[in-house]
Design brief:
The protein has 115 residues and is α+β, with helices and mostly antiparallel strands. It has helices spanning 2-18, 26-41, 45-55, 71-75; strands spanning 61-66, 80-85, 92-96, 102-105, 111-113. It folds into two domains: 2-39, no CATH class; 43-113, no CATH class. A five-stranded antiparallel sheet has the order 1-2-3-4-5, covered by helices on one side. It is rod-shaped. Keywords: Signal. Residues 1-27 form the signal peptide.
Length: 115
């Protein structure tokens, strides 16, 4: 029994020396990809305005500030941009800079996901 285990381990060792396993580097590539994707997710003000225009191109949008200017958004820990449509309304739009989601927004704290 001991001889068969010894012979088997010598054979397996010889196979590994003849056919070494290739270097595995997929973990490193994945981390680079996730960093690139993370960088691509953060929207600029212009990108956010383009998203709104694509959402409804019949209205012009006026930039009113970032989430830093609105206490309701700060309390929820959201980051992004606030726009008002160029029509008679007190409801605006909030575009999340990390997720690209569009919300109906009112400075009183009303926030509803649209898209």
């Amino acid at each position: 029994m001991k001889k068969s285990i010894l012979v088997l381990s010598i054979l397996v060792g010889g196979l590994l020396l003849m056919n070494p396993t290739p270097e595995v580097s997929f973990a490193q590539d994945n981390s680079k990809t996730s960093v690139q994707q993370e960088q691509q997710k953060t929207l600029t003000q212009a990108d956010a305005q383009k998203l709104l225009t694509n959402f409804n191109n019949k209205v012009n949008y006026i930039f009113k500030g970032t989430s830093d200017n609105f206490k309701a958004l700060q309390e929820k820990g959201l980051k992004g941009y606030v726009f008002l449509p160029d029509v008679d309304t007190d409801m605006g739009y909030f575009v999340d800079q990390n997720t690209s989601q569009i919300y109906n927004f009112h400075p009183s704290g009303y926030l509803e996901l649209i898209k």
